[in-house]
Give the backbone structure.
Amino acid sequence: MRISEISEAFKISLDAMIANKMRSFLASLGVLIGISFVIIMGWVLDGLDNAMQDTFNIMGADVLYVDKFDWAGGKSWDEVRQRKNITIDQVEEFTKRVQDAELIFPTARRWGASMAYNGENYSGFPILGTTFEHSLSPAGEVIVGRHFSQVEDIRGENVIVLGFNIYEKIFDSKDPVDKIVKLNGHKFRVIGVIKKQGNMFFDFIDNQVFIPMKAFLKTFGNFNRSISIGVKAGSVEKLDFVRDEVRGAMRTIREVKPYEEDDFSINETKAFENQVAMIRTMVWSVGIGLTTLSFVVGIIGIMNVMFVSVVERTKEIGIRKALGAKRGSIAWQFIMESGLLCFIGALLSFIVCSVIVYIAAEYLPIYVSDKLSFLSKMLPYNLLFWATLVSVIVGMLAGLIPAFRAAKLDPVDAMRSE
């Protein structure tokens, strides 16, 4: 087909759509809704992916967490619960044995602890005892004040570093440094605030406070308490090697026989990545279902519009065929018109979604929840491109049957049509 014929078919299609603006808009509406579902869903998931990747980077892509419990839930609870605790003595022995890790920092937790400040009691968050090495990890980056030092760690001084959400809840974003809070009746001096790290799915990361390990054991005791060990490999490339070293050291320390399974877990951010993948799959499944339904409605609408168009322009088709127009040219005219209807639906969807996305990203974090701050004000344009391409192709396919019907019309009978 020559370029002149394509250009002529495009002009005729455009004139027909302009002549029937309302009908063309209604035919494009189903496509508009379908593409909008895809774009909005992709926008949410894209923002969520970026937020989660930032959180994983803070937690450490090259960090392993040796724990009594399995984060991914791969073992039965009864089996995991009966494992022996990881003791402080085992942690000290582990630190001596593992030589290839960049950083090792143990962590003890007190769940559901309470803190008193200025006559008010705050509860429901974990208190973590750790060592000064935590300050050297991405998870220990502070935005106010500082982390506790090695000297304060060795001495077990009563100093405390607050998670971002705890800081905002208790101090309402005011300077907390050198303020005195009480944990279990013991006075602690606030020296810093950890940088905000979580998002709506990992908000717990910002609901923690950190004190030196010795101060933790002195305040809460070591009765029936298992300790987690953070191990920073130094790079993702070294992760496999360090993981093997960590497993070997822990099996030796805990006297696990060669034929026995590990009585501990080595956790990584991949445990969260798998959960995120499941959430993505569920969201995409729902979104694709709604999109498919919208496209089906849109395709039926476009096909009906094209059948009506063929009937209305039967005499015109007969005249064009009498003047020498080929079947291919007639068919292409209607196929292009149906594709153009879908393309206009895609353009309208882009405008509507751009407005929705900007307003949502601008105001939802302010008026609904700051946990939605991961939402971007920009659309994922690659998704828009593919959604538009698919919609145009589907639209052209929807116009095939009406187009072939128009192409097969007898010119004599068509010119007699009123």
Remarks:
- The mean pLDDT is 82.
- The chain is about 55% helix and 15% strand.
- Strands lie at 63-67, 103-117, 120-130, 142-145, 159-162, 180-183, 186-194, 209-212, 228-232, 265-267.
- The first strand starts at residue 63 and ends at 67.
